[in-house]
Specification:
Membrane-anchoring subunit of succinate dehydrogenase (SDH). The protein is mostly helical. The protein contains four helices and no strands. It is elongated, with a radius of gyration of 23 Å.
Length: 137
């Protein structure tokens, strides 16, 4: 690690510099950590949309029709699809963290596989939920 050396500084004042982000190689674990945080934030927004839908339901038929039209539109369904993925991805990320909490999966191949499986499982289960949802309706 490089040390900052300014003229006239005392040895005890010299502190190591933090490595810059460009030094690190982007990994699956880093990407899934960022995705876990982003999906957590997205769930707040999605939950507000759920609350808006419930308020429309409680407000009467006209408000509910408007909410149903909005959520039934292409953009509404796209947002709901993203919310479904965010929910499932965040859940699988939480399971990955739980596995680490019990002391498993710390070696490099296991970390890599857990990160990949988080993404694969969330995408596959999202598609499955929507296929079943359309098949039942």
């Amino acid at each position: 690690m490089a040390e900052a050396k300014a003229p006239g500084t005392r040895p005890e004042d010299i502190r190591p510099l933090s490595p810059h982000l460009q030094i690190y190689r982007w990994t699956w674990t880093m990407a899934m950590s960022v995705a876990h945080r982003v999906t957590g934030a997205a769930l707040y927004v999605g939950t507000l949309l759920l609350v808006a839908w419930l308020l429309a339901l409680a407000s009467g038929p006209a408000a509910f029709e408007t909410a149903q039209w909005l959520f039934g539109s292409f953009l509404g369904r796209l947002i709901l699809f993203g919310y479904t993925w965010a929910l499932l991805h965040h859940m699988f990320g939480g399971i990955r963290h739980f596995i680490w909490d019990v002391g498993l999966g710390f070696d490099a191949p296991a970390r890599q596989n857990l990160a990949r499986m988080t993404l694969i499982a969330s995408a596959a289960l999202t598609l499955l939920v929507w296929v079943i949802g359309y098949a039942v309706s």
